[in-house]
Write a structure and sequence with these properties.
171 residues; alpha/beta; Rossmann fold; five-stranded parallel sheet; 5 strands; binds shikimate-3-phosphate
């Protein structure tokens, strides 16, 4: 059955490699909604790519920028928003997203996440570390926050399957 247009934006949260950006693009196309990637918006606002932002100003400055950008996106028209993996850990961002959006946690085993992030660099929190170990420690610290999402989606299969699961789960 065709999904109605959602009444709120859809925010995708979860660890790096969960597929937030690729799934988000496809989902937005299916729902005929705009798609926006918070990381890309941060890079645009800061006029720096994320690794440079971390390197020059540190993670705390990146998080400040991320909080402001997501507040703007969540206050905008209904759209599909892919957030960076750490965004939903921030309390202010989490509260805002939970109040304004349908928040979907894309959840997948660390091995699957690792296989996906292997294909793209530019993630300062993984640089120079064993990917599985780094993702495991992030998962240990973050799962309790992701679990506050409105809906948990099993994102261990491919993008099309994940999109189908989301469409079936949306209210
Ligand atoms: C981060 C995830 C990245 C990006 C930054 C920090 C994190 O986004 O925001 O490197 O803290 O998990 P993706 O989840 O899109 O890779």
């Amino acid at each position: 059955a065709p999904n109605r247009s959602p009444d709120r934006s859809i925010a995708l949260v979860g660890l790096m490699g969960a597929g937030k950006s690729t799934v988000g693009q496809k989902l937005a196309a299916k729902l005929a909604l705009p798609f926006v990637d918070a990381d890309t918006e941060i890079e645009r606002a800061a006029r720096l790519d994320i690794p440079s932002l971390f390197e020059r100003y540190g993670e705390a400055a990146f998080r400040d920028c991320e909080r402001r950008v997501i507040a703007r996106l969540a206050g905008g028209p209904v759209q599909v928003i892919a957030t960076g993996g750490g965004a939903f850990v921030d309390e202010a961002t989490r509260r805002l997203l939970l109040a304004r959006c349908h928040v979907l946690w894309l959840d997948a085993p660390v091995e699957r996440l690792a296989a996906r992030v292997g294909r793209r660099g530019g993630r300062p929190l993984l640089d120079g570390r064993d990917t599985i170990e780094a993702l495991e420690s992030l998962a240990a610290a973050r799962t309790r926050y992701y679990a506050e999402a409105h809906i948990r989606i099993d994102a261990s299969e491919d993008r099309d399957e994940t999109v189908a699961r989301i469409l079936a789960a949306l209210p």
